[in-house]
Design a protein that fits this description.
By secondary structure, this protein is of the alpha/beta class. The protein has a single domain, classed as Arginase, Chain A (3-Layer(aba) Sandwich), CATH 3.40.800.10. The chain is built from nine helices and eight strands. Strands 2-1-3-8-7-4-5-6 form an eight-stranded parallel beta sheet, sandwiched between helices. Helix 3 (about 95-110) runs parallel beside helix 4, helix 4 (about 125-135) runs parallel beside helix 5 and helix 8 (about 260-265) runs parallel beside helix 9 (about 290-310).
């Protein structure tokens, strides 16, 4: 009998309650190994809003998810109790710091109970309160796929935008910069502040030009070297991909990863001690086709497999 109740996955894909990957809904941490959560919040964006609609559309597109991974031959629902815990019930969306506190407080009981969290955003500012909810005695390592380093300090008077979550996490002792790799960085900037912060604090920054030189296999090897056996968080901003694949995002940058490269990269992380993950910056209003949300949902399934593989001793 599978660890997750998969009866809803046997229904037609257009039927049933549209939870992430058609798993059961849970309202408490009891009996949950991996909690799938939506964070419909984009109050931290610096350009185009719309990521607040990401979780709902990724839920819709995740009805296409199936159980057994095509290359790993592994079914995460067989070995882990996976549940959709719903969306953060925001009450103060017009106050960035208050909204972040609501994210932290919603996820913290699940983290405290030992569940791993897989979050659908939402803009990238939400990753900082996720780190706060997961707070551990030692800072986390991270694999970060993105067009931007998100280590700027302040924008328009706020230190909690989608351009600053990892700077805040380092300052708070939640993220180990020396065990962090940022992959796919590209695009011109008005200031090199973010790049400099990442490099000066020991982050391994793989700009897109170097990605092309190293190739996927070389970047995988570098990621595994950087994070080692430390507990690692996976953060995937869909603008890390080329906008031909993910046009529905707030700050698109051409010249990014292909979806095939993204899948190969994530699959190459198998065996790492992945303890949490997010897929962020899916902004459906900019992509009427629904493809960006489909990509986001598929990346969530790949992240779920990494979380489940590291949850079960092998």
């Amino acid at each position: 009998m599978p660890a997750t109740d998969t009866r809803q996955q046997q229904l037609p894909r257009y039927a049933g309650i549209p939870t992430f990957m058609r798993v059961p809904f849970a309202s408490s941490p009891q009996g949950v190994d991996i909690a799938l959560a939506g964070v419909p919040y984009d109050g931290g964006v610096s350009a185009r809003p719309g990521a607040r609609h990401g979780p709902r559309e990724m839920r819709n597109q995740s009805s296409m998810a199936r159980g057994i991974h095509p290359t790993l031959g592994f079914n995460p629902f067989e070995v882990c109790r996976v549940a959709d815990i719903g969306d953060v019930p925001f009450t103060r969306v017009y106050d960035v710091e208050a909204a972040h506190a609501e994210i932290r407080d919603f996820l913290a009981p699940y983290c405290a109970a030992g569940a791993k969290v897989l979050v659908a955003g939402g803009d990238h500012s939400i990753t900082y309160p996720i780190f706060q909810a997961m707070a551990r005695p030692q800072p986390l390592a991270m694999v970060h796929i993105d067009a931007h380093t998100d280590t700027w300090d302040e924008f328009a008077g706020s230190k909690f935008t989608h351009g600053s979550p990892f700077r805040r996490a380092v300052e708070a002792g939640l993220l180990d910069p020396t065990r962090t790799i940022q992959i796919g960085i590209r695009g011109a900037q008005n200031s090199d502040e973010g790049w400099r912060y990442s490099l000066d604090h020991g982050m391994r920054v793989v700009f897109m030009d170097e990605f092309e030189t190293l190739g996927v296999a070389g970047v995988i090897a570098e990621a595994r070297r950087v994070v080692g056996d430390a507990p690692v968080y996976l953060s995937f901003d869909v603008d890390g991909l080329d906008p031909v694949f993910t046009p529905g995002t707030g700050t698109p940058e051409i010249g990014g990863l292909t979806t095939r490269e993204a899948l190969a990269l994530l699959r190459g992380l198998d065996g790492l001690n992945v303890v949490g993950a997010d897929v962020v910056e899916v902004a459906p209003p900019f992509d009427p086709s629904g493809n960006t949300a489909l990509v986001g949902a598929t990346l969530m399934y790949e992240a779920l497999c990494l979380l489940a593989r590291s949850h079960v001793p092998r």
